[in-house]
Amino acid sequence: MSTATATAPRSPAPGRPPATADRRRRFLPRVGHWFVTPYVVFLLVVFAYPLLYNLWISFHRFYFTAPGAHVPSRWVGFANYRDVFADPVVRKSFVNIGIFLVINVPLTVVLALVLAAALNAKLPFRGFFRAAFYLPYVTASVALVAVWSFLFGSDGLVDKVLGPLAPDPSWLVNSTWAMPVLAFFVTWKQLGFFVMLYLAALQNVSGELYDAASVDGADTLRTFLSVTVPGVRPATTVVTVFAIITGSNLFTEPYLLTGGGGPADASVSPVLVMYQKGIEQAHPDFAAALGVVLVVLVVALSLIARRFTEKGD
Amino acid sequence: MFRRTALALVALGLVAATSSCARSGPDPAVADTSRGPITVWLSDNAQEIGWGNAMVADWNRQHPDQKVTARQIPAGKTSEEAESASIIAGNSACLVFNGSPASVPQFQQQAGLVALNTFPGAAAYIKARTGARAAQYESADGEFYQMPWKTNPVMILYNKKIFAKAGIDPDHPDLTTYARFVAASKKIVSSGAAPSAIWPSPASDFFQPWYDYYPAFIAQSHGQPLVKDGKPQFDSPAGRAAMDFWNTLYRDKLAPQEAYPGDAMAEGRTAMATVGPWAIAAYQGKVDWGVMPVPTQNGMPADQVHTFSDEKSVDMFTACKNRLTAWDVLKFATSEQQDGKLLSATGQMPMRTNLLGTYASWFARNAGYRPFADAASRTVEVPDVAGSIDMWQEFRDDYSRSVIFGKQSPDAALHEASVKISKILAEY
Lengths: 313, 428
Hints:
The complex is a heterodimer of chains A (about 325) and B (about 425).
Chain A: H1 2-6, H2 18-58, E1 60-61, E2 74-75, H3 79-86, H4 88-120, H5 126-138, H6 141-152, H7 157-162, H8 178-202, H9 207-215, H10 220-231, H11 233-248, H12 252-256, H13 270-280, H14 284-309
Antiparallel strand pairs in A: 1-2
Chain B: H1 2-21, H2 28-31, E1 38-42, H3 46-62, E2 68-72, H4 79-89, E3 95-99, H5 104-109, H6 122-130, E4 147-151, E5 155-159, H7 160-165, H8 178-190, E6 196-198, H9 213-220, E7 227-228, E8 231-232, H10 237-251, E9 270-275, H11 278-283, E10 289-292, E11 307-308, E12 312-316, H12 323-333, H13 336-346, E13 349-350, H14 355-358, H15 360-365, H16 370-376, E14 379-380, H17 388-404, H18 410-427
Helix pairs in contact in B: 3-13, 9-10, 10-17, 17-18
């Protein structure tokens, strides 16, 4: 019966003139367009236009000038891209980001999922723990960086606890350890956000699956691996892609925590180089080309990660 | 419907693109001869804001028809970034009282600065006020795009209590040579008087050499700039000696490689700092300080030691619509009377000849500032060359890698920096 009601052909409501129904029929689809238009405009103005303008800049000799100053922007083909790839600091920055992502992304996915599963269970002080994990995410990086500087400084708490096991030179000025410390810092800072994503995803995993696993005699680890992990796979894709995007855009941490990508470029990142070249040294053309390379890399990594995390679906 | 929406959006995009291409600034012919209200920007230094507000109030009392509004430079990582962004947006103030000479070539390239020579008598006024040092602020095209305003000659400020604790005479430390400076630094650290002898920022910012290597190089080379006549000057015995001096301090762990998350001098974590007279007010009541010139390899009398100026200029921006008023305000703000008020309020040295004679009574009451005033006449500026920031960043990268972090021999890094900087200068 209900099916018949739902598929019944539309007819003018009793007592309503047919013209009104026609107007309504024409108006309703338009409402959707009007609702979506502000966001489309936002996307065009804030993302599409700057992205295309950036692409245009990357193929020209370009610098920003005052209004009214007419300076021709010469077409230079791939010259800016050649400069980008020829720059040893840029190459180093991509290696650094590679190290960062190798540590940060798996650590983020594993820790966020484990913590979310734990916080999804009936724990005492669950609300407190959820807030505690989320707190670093909403705290300003600058404040957290100061705390980590004290912790990982040569006479900081970490070195005091480790004693003779502490590295020399200390963490933040050590070429080997600077990038891993940044990766751990960002993992810790962002974790609360990713835990929230997983917590939301966990609400959609059917309780019947856990019951079935229990009946089959699965222990906690087996249940986690066979029910929870596949159950939140779409969230894992989102977490992985988000972690890749935020990690590739690393700026504040090397700028503040390791004194601008130190020691000797050991923690320099592509966005930090973009800032130095584009803003400080007024070479927006070079920075634009580097930006395009970074976008391509992030998209490629995200697609690979998506394929990997959605494997078997 | 969807097609119509898409067309409307494309039209909107075209309008936006057209309007952004059709940006226009004030007509120079009109602006250069116009008077009226203007805005000036000040740095965020509390003493400078106090002076700036008082100066503007003085002006407004005398010129009610040409009202001046003072504001702080918009927030940014550096004031130069905010100024550059305002040039591009076309909303700069008429005058900015915090211009870095290193940024002038870049602002010139952006067509953001007014050549002050546009105004009758401007060049003569600048030269008369600043003396021979004015030549360092003249651009390659012979124009003044900045008014040299105030200087903070870089010297070594030291903590007398730490010196005394380390067994160094706090009133006559006599650290004029590199050997004596290093020996005293070792005493400070080994005695436990302070964890470090000196703690300049090891960060990679392009401007950091101005507070470690550059003053040492200027002193050792008897006043050479980093680049002269388009050629780097530092790949020389003087440059290598200054490099070796700093490398010794880092190598012997007398200067830390890490950035201190606070003020190491104020918190007693280090005994010395390379600063200008601004620091006296900043450390008032926190540090019992003394001051001495930057050391040299074999030592030289204090009255012969050159140093880095750490000067700030006043820039006039092309977004200004009432430039005649701006020029008059600029002269008013750099008059003998206002310079005296600036000195009194901030302790920073106006870029004026014969400071000690002109403000003799003030220096008699504030004797601690006399060494800075004396050094002000022997200051050296950053070279006014196109590609200035690129050049300093390149230098800093090579310096950090070798001197601070020991990844390369300092001599090799110095030579490499010289070759790369020559290439940068040739490209512009």
